[in-house]
Amino acid sequence: MYSNQDNILQDLAQTAERLSYSKDWQPTQHGDSEMRIAKNGVWFHQGGEIKRPALVQLFSRLLRREGEQYFLVTPVEKLSIVVEDAPFVSINTDVQGQGSTQNLYVTTNLGDVVWVGPEHPLRVEIASNGEPAPYVSIGEHLDVRLQRSDFYQLVDCAVERVLDGQSVMGLWSQGEFYVLGAI
After folding, report:
1. Mean pLDDT for all residues in the chain
2. Residue 27, CB half-sphere, CA atoms under 13 Å: how many?
3. CATH 3.40.30.10 fits 5-83, yes or no
C-alpha cells in the first residue's frame, strides 16, 4: 500500500493532527522520551539526530508545554522531552504592507506559517547575555524563536513610536503594534 516509510510517517502526522484529543487529556502512563530539541530546532533521540522530516512533524503535533516542562502526549502515554529554548525556529519572515495595515508572517522550520497578531503575538525578551530574544506564540504555550537574520529583517522594517513616554522601535501586524526594543 505504501511506497516507502516516509509516506507512512507523513500519513501518521496528518492523522495525529486530525485525531487530536483534548488538551486536558492526562494519560496514566508517564516516562522519558529520551528526546531533545536543540536551540536551533533540530530534534534528537538518544543523542542521534532525527533526520526524517515526517517523523519530526508527527512528534511536533504531540508536543505540549506544562509550566516550564515539555511533553509528548499520546492517547496512551505522556513522555518528557528536553527543549533547549523554543521547540520551533523561524526559517523566514515576510512583511507585507506598511504602517498599521502591515502584516507579518513567520515560517517555521517545520513549514508552518504563522500570521503574527492577537492569536499569535510577537514578543522580545532580553536573554542573559543582553541580546534580544524574539518569539512568536503559536498557541498552547508553544513558541517559535526568530533567528537573528529574521529579527534583523524586522528591525529594518520597524518604525519609531512613543509608548508610555518612551521611544521604541516596533512594527505592525493585524492592526497591533509589537515592540522590538527601546531606543
Report:
1. 88
2. 16
3. no
